[in-house]
Every structure is written in structure tokens, then in C-alpha cells.
Amino acid sequence: MNKKYNRGFICGFFDILHDGHIDILKKAKELCDYLIVSVGTDEFMIKRKHRKSILTYEQRIKIVKSIKYVDLVVPEENLDKIAAFKQYHFDVMFSGMDHIDEPVYIEATKRLKELGVDTIYFERTSDISSTKIRERIIELHSWFLIHIYIFKTKIYFYLIDIHKNMRRWIL
């Protein structure tokens, strides 16, 4: 089957992989013969997101390499899409709509177009994101800690009760 593009390029951290990531990679692969996925390094994650990743870079590339829509995984160390184009020679860049208003993407889209490269922004297909998953984990962790505290408090008072009763029995 002939696809519209030869080589596609997409970037991401893929830190907590979810179905939204799979959807965007599948859509991208449906439009190109060869899909290059640039995975953000741990250092770049700190620079771009101002936090450490949950999974290491090595773990994330291993996971992304195993996805059937991915042909090549390369490191992403910065936002320079023109340098990426010069290195990987893609004819289309894919991204999520969440980046469409970022100045760096606006400029990259314009400059890539001048080089004959299209940019396609995909809408989010699910109501999930790595941020929402991370927030849910924190919420569940907090709930767990609160319940442990309550349980420990109940045990403490129970032990005090036993101690009082033992003193009465002994005396």
C-alpha cells in the first residue's frame, strides 16, 4: 500500500506510556512508510518538563522500540526540529495538538514547510495523559498514606487501652 509520506518523524517522552501514545503512533504510521520516533532523554526531560522521568531513558526506548508502528527510535536532546530534519531526512513531522501554539513548534512548522516538509498535528483521541496518570498515582498514594495513618492511630489507642486494662488486672 502506497502511503502519502515516505519518512515520518515524531517526538515524545513516553514516560508513562498509555493508549493516547499508541493512537498517535498508529495514526502517524498509517500516513508514512517509515516512522522515526525521537524519545526525549532524561536530561532533556528535566530541561523541558522541569522534573525527572518516572522511567529511565533506556526503559522508555526499550518500550517504544517494541511498538509495532515504530521503525526507528532516536534520542531527542533538544527542540531543534530543523537539526532533526537534517539528520533524519523526514518528509513529514507529526505532533499532538497540545504543541500547535508553542512558539518553537510554530517556527519549526514554518521553517520545515520552506524545506518541503509537512507538519501534521493530531487531536487527542482519549481523555488520558501522562500528567493525569501521574496525578492519579499521587492521589492514590495520598489516600493510602492517610489510611495507614488512621490505622496506626487506631492501633496506638488500642494498645493504650490494653495497657490500661493490664495495669488494672495486675494491680
How would you describe this protein?
This protein has 171 residues and is of the alpha/beta class. It has helices at 19-31, 42-49, 57-65, 81-88, 103-114, 130-170; strands at residues 5-12, 32-40, 72-76, 92-96, 118-122. It has a 5-stranded parallel beta sheet, with helices on both faces. The longest helix has 41 residues, at 130-170. The mean pLDDT is 86.
* pLDDT < 50 stretches: none
Order of helices and strands: EHEHHEHEHEH
Terminal residue distance:
91 Å
| Spatial sequence of strands, sheet with the most strands | 3-2-1-4-5
Helix count equals 6
What would you call the structural class?
alpha/beta
Mean pLDDT: 86
Largest sheet: 5 strands, parallel
Shape: elongated
Radius of gyration: 25 Å
Q: What portion of residues is helical? A: 40-55%
* Number of distinct beta strands: 5
The proportion of residues in beta strands is 15-25%
List keywords for this structure.
single chain; 171 residues; alpha/beta; 5-stranded parallel β-sheet; 6 helices; 5 strands
